[in-house]
């Protein structure tokens, strides 16, 4: 299939399988969604770094060591949040485009 045929196939969703349609839509995913999830990633990274920094400073003071450990645990949990945000984003977007395909082909 040459480039012109591929472009025609992608512009006419009736010739695509559901999987091809969803993959194509994911490749040209709306900048709105990418930007909003990018903001979540950035906020997560910033607060994660902040918790580690504050926790590290707290370790200099005996009376604040418990709070320092608490902030380290909180920051460690945030390491799990970032891939979770990505996964939720991917699953929701694929579900949305799959439903969109289904509605067009009822």
How would you describe what is shown here?
This protein is mainly α. The chain has one domain. The protein is 82% helix and 0% strand. The chain has 4 helices and no strands. Helix 2 crosses helix 4. The chain is rod-shaped and about 65 Å long. The protein starts with a helix and ends with a helix.
Summed over residues and divided by their number, the pLDDT gives a mean of 81
Please indicate the percent range of residues in DSSP E strands (runs of 2 or more): under 5%
Number of domains: 1
What series of H and E elements makes up the topology? HHHH
Reported for the largest beta sheet, the result is:
none
InterPro entries: YrhK_domain
Biased composition (Polar residues): 1-16
Region (Disordered): 1-22
Domain YrhK: 35-90
Descriptors for this entry?
membrane; transmembrane helix; transmembrane; YrhK family protein; YrhK_domain; 106 residues; mainly alpha
What's a concise summary of this model?
This protein has 106 residues and is mostly helical. Helices cover 82% and strands 0% of the residues.
Write the layout of secondary structure elements.
Elements: H1 3-11, H2 18-27, H3 31-58, H4 65-104
Helix pairs in contact: 2-4, 3-4
